[in-house]
# Entry
Amino acid sequence: MKRLTAEKLKLCFMKGTENLLKHKDEINALNVFPVPDGDTGSNMSATMLEGCKYLESIENKVTMEKVLNAIKNGTLMGARGNSGVILSQIFRGFCDYLKNVKQITVADFAFAFKSAKDVAYGAVMKPVEGTILTAIRYLSEKVEELSDAQDFNEFFEKTLMILKKAVDDTPNLLKKLRDAGVVDAGAKGLYYIMEGFYKYIQGETTINLDVKTTSMPVEEIQFIPEDLKYQYCTELIVRAFDELNNGQEEEIRNFLYEIGDSVVFFVQDNVIKLHVHTNNPGTVIEKLLGVGELLKVKIDNMKEQHEHFIETGYKEEGPRKKNAIVAVSPSEGISRILRDLGADMIVIGGQTMNPSTADIKVAVEALNADNVFIFPNNSNIILAARQVASSIEDKNVYVVNTKNVQECVAALIRHVPDEEPENLLKVYEEAVSEVVTLSVTRAVRNARLNGEKIKKNEYLVFVNNSLQTHDLDFKKALEDAFAKIEDLEEREIITILLGKDATPIEINILEKLVKQKYPNLEIETYEGEQVHYPFLILIE
# Structure
């Protein structure tokens, strides 16, 4: 097929909607991260479905003008959430470029991607890479290559290859996606829409918009609860009394960024569409009433959604695993490290913030596995972990008695996914017994500990969870602690997890000391981002 008629474009769009609907649950599962702000799969589906409704309402002869206007206006009026709004602007730019075309060629479609990218980026005051914006940008940057396709079969094959790369790249561009171990939901949604277009071109012409989702939710989503700065997701559609000038548009944009974030704002055919996270949705409504009449208002309490998710948890689907791992982590940085080493579920907690038995149980129950290993990573959490182990009936639960995260890292380095659980437990326990760990913190008050007088602000160095030395001089405290490790010259690697309070001077002192006195140790440094302990160290 070398050209798309108006009728074929209409059916491509509807097939794209059907394909998105099939994968809605998968997209929603991805959108668990970072906070529930509606659901990306549901929001994108609502946007596309409204476009289909407008397409189905076309009367008399189907023309390209009617189809483009239906897609453009339908997606605008149906847009929900940040992802839906941006998706509507992608189609707005796409339709605007094609407005004078009677039949769409491959080159027309390719250059429409470029227009779609420009309009979508223009709608977002502070575009964020690693999102659906990145996906449409990747397509816009390959216009020449796409234009060379011989027909629409080849065109969409190339389109899907480009989009797949964009989706796979999103975690590299957005730290929170990387920490969570997921790709961007909006970018993946756009991939499925274009896949639907391709399916129609290939001959799958039956369309069912009542289709139920068939894709399993993605596996291994790490959800890290976080405080919400802004509580209400606020969306408005307003018909302006008069055409807004550039000064008025800029004033509204600046106002939205003063009172919130995640701002999307644009004006299309005298209709204002906005999305903002704010603590004062009433102020937004009042401001916009000054320039027009409300057509649609949607306000969601994200705090309520957020707390509901934490309470109910995430249920892992997909093939049942032989062995799975739950690890307690005090920070995002350490969570990332544990995830890279094979942890399937992360429970946030640690020193001063011990998770409850219920927290750990939710994580264990969410895993679809025959055997689950719990790493409590703190002596105060081991009992809670054991209680969970004794209360689970549908899987075997083992507690590895790790008293700090360094022991957990040492154990997971030796992780063998398909090993027999009894053997794997021995491997873990052996790793814990062999590693030397140091934990460096500072005294917050004068005190006595194990008969020792501790002064406020002294460095405290724990070796294998036992206080070995304390001093106001950081270098001296380290030297004393290292001197008490008997076989240090025989070890090979020292891994340092840097906390939020670690200073460049302290880091330099530690690394210089190791290089000068223990050249046998290869230094590996990672951003642990933990609080209270500027340095967590393991020596193997």
About this structure: The longest strand covers residues 292-301.
